[in-house]
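Example record

One chain of 563 residues, shown exactly as stored in the release files.
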Amino acid sequence: MSLTGRLGPLLAGLYPGRADEVRRDLLALASAWQGPIDARLSAHPARRLDAGTAYLITYGDAIRRDGQVPLRALAGVLDDVVGDAVTDVHLLPLYPWTSDDGFAVVDHREVDPALGSWHDVAVLGARHGLMLDLVANHVSAASPWFSGWLAGDRARAGYFLDPPPGFDTSRVVRPRTTPLVHRFPRPDGTTARAWTTFGPDQVDVDVRTPAVLLDLTDVLLGYVARGATTVRLDAIGFLWKESGTTCLHLPQTHAVIQVWRALLDALAPGVRLLTETNVPHAENVAYFGDGQDEAHMVYQFALPPLVLHAFVTGDASVLTRWAASIGPVGPDATFFTFLASHDGIGMRPTEGLLDDDARALLVDRAVSHGGRVSWAARSDGTPTVYELNVNYLDALAEPGADVGDVVRRGLAAHSILLAMVGVPALYYHSLLGSSADRAGMEASGISRRINREVLDADRLARELVDSPRRRAVLDGLRRLLAVRRAHPAFAPDAPAQVETVDRRLLVVRRGTGAEAVTTVTNVSDQRVAVPWLGGTDLLTGREVAELGPHGFAWVRGGTPPRG
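Predicted structure tokens for this chain:
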């Protein structure tokens, strides 16, 4: 179907009475961006997702070196330390910002000068696939969009939402306990109210106004022209607001994503959309649409807490039951799998998977490891656990565990990550074997800072030689990624079969026939015999008959006994 044909019904549902006008404006935008996008993708095509695809999740200033802008320091570490372990780099928001470590964006179209420039971004994009964030749901309260709206600028009319009398917000679902609506001073001395899902410095835009959709679309296409081969749609589930609804995952939100998918399919084939919706699994996977018309990738948010639960209990039963329900999505869609990120371990995805006692166990685990717990409000106003703020590698082991135990558990957990259907993403602190930054969390008062420490490039280079934890984690993950890259059985669309063999084991068989690989991970601190596995471990080159505590193996073939 043509782009015009795809846009027509979507826009008719979003903007009744104005659909033709909005379609005309979107097509004009597409025409304006086609040349720059063609030039960029001709020089640096989007890489096809395969068994070798792996993303690194990082801030633009995650790595610093005196005398260098951070993006150049990051590029140096990618070249000198990370090498070919990852193919793609997810740069968290690069733009001028006022709070939330980048997610309160002042100007979506500029790079924060403290990080570098678009040229520095292009250098990274010349060597790796590049993921950029489109923070579509909100802007900083210091954004020119918002200040213009407050000042009564006609060009910004309708950009933000002051819920009118009778607008029913009783069912709204949010990840925060702060007020939904805040007051802001206008230049004339009066005040205005505006919708603030995430807090007073992150003001939601109102995409019910066509001009807002056009501005966001212009930003999206600009990122592709600047080299983005993946665009992450941050907090996208909250985008559209309607009275009397949850204002989460509304059909109009899905339609907006389908508009953007249609534009990318037409202008930039191979460039991918990733939706970030930290919600229960069934709601999350709805963003695939029919597998060809919406997101190319969705986060696998249930994986981090379920893997942690398996290691805390020494029992993979819950993880196994859930994993058995996960299969390839299709040739044009797959999961974005991860264990750690810039945020905490989301707990909403465990709803319906873990009972209250199991969830409480994970809360206790985070607190006992010096972490914190973040809370959200249900629609009735009662609090519920939203996420655990803790370093993932630390959380896997007992407090005070020796380095060897932390490394074994960390690599075992990542063997599960790399065996699952989808494309894997590794947070920079996980790849580099970092510990929790409790001092940074306590000094800032920001719980998520426990896992956001900025690293000095030269000190990191020394620690990768002198620190057994850093060196062993990086070397182990590089080995896992190299073996994964060499075996097509781990391609995103390769079949997956999960077997129930022993509650202490997660057994995932990927691929078919002679190329199939059986992965086995022991989540317990016990030795487990695996005589049925047979063959040579692709990771060590040794025969495998038994797995030690938190041991794992990848064997070509293998015939798990039916449990």
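Notes: The longest strand covers residues 383-389.
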